[in-house]
Amino acid sequence: MSIAENLQRIRASLKDGVSLVAVSKYHSAQEITQAYHAGQRLFAESKVQDLVTKAQALPSDIQWHMIGHLQRNKVKYIAPFISLIHSVDSLRLLSEIDKQASKHGRVIPCLLQVHVAQEQSKFGFAPQQIIPLLPELAQFPHVRIHGIMGMASFTQNTQQITQEFELLHALFQQIKQLNLPFTTIDTLSMGMSGDYSLAMDCGSTLVRIGSLIFEE
Ligand SMILES: *Cc1c(COP(=O)(O)O)cnc(C)c1O
């Protein structure tokens, strides 16, 4: 199967209202170009250096997303062009994004990463930290929070995965209903190659898919 065929198959399986970001983190500019020619415009990377290199080398109408852990001292490199940061996991990081965005006269769309998986290694806020944190967002006019991002546990147990996605969805709904003036809550980023169908069943609006596009 080619990259174009993989994309076509995945797109056909997306529910209404669900967007696809192609996770190109282990893949070359040449492979990304194949996906681009198949109409894909949203791509995600997990490292700042790769974002910078690939954004320079590839067409300027690609929208680049950051999905990996982001260090504060590296925000400046992506601030000029990043179109969505999924992985905001602290207020100190948010404050730095705000500062760098203001230098470029931008408002950078961001998601708060929420930790729901069993693995300790995954970054993010605890679910119960999110609601109390929301009033703080008013301090950062150059950042706009669009929702939350999460990853389910690495397991075959679909009941476990569903439970975690449902928790994220409930939190997303709760935030949305608050209608805070300094937010636009429209994005629930959850679901990867192995679990995106479950994620869509649980209300995902943005799936992040890498290996199913580039490796099958
Ligand atoms: C790598 C990665 C993905 C994509 O994973 P696949 O299993 O290759 O689809 C999605 N989200 C995050 C945060 C990732 O790091």
Explain what this protein looks like in three dimensions.
- The chain is globular.
- The longest helix has 21 residues, at 158-178.
- The N and C termini lie close together (7 Å).
- It has helices spanning 3-13, 29-37, 48-57, 75-78, 91-103, 127-133, 158-178, 196-201, 211-214; strands spanning 19-23, 42-45, 63-66, 84-88, 108-115, 143-151, 183-189, 206-209.
- By secondary structure, it is α/β, with parallel strands linked by helices.
- The model has no long low-confidence stretch (mean pLDDT 97).
- Strands 7-6-5-4-3-2-1-8 form an eight-stranded parallel sheet.
- Strand 2 (42-45), helix 3 and strand 3 form a beta-alpha-beta unit.
- The protein binds pyridoxal-5'-phosphate.
- Pyridoxal-5'-phosphate is lined by residues 23, 25, 46, 67-68, 151, 192-194, 208-212.
At a glance:
With 216 residues, the chain is of the alpha/beta class.
Class by SSE composition: alpha/beta
Helix coverage percent of residues? Answer: 25-40%
What is the makeup of the main sheet? 8 strands, parallel
Low-confidence stretches: none
Number of extended strands: 8
- Total helix count? 9
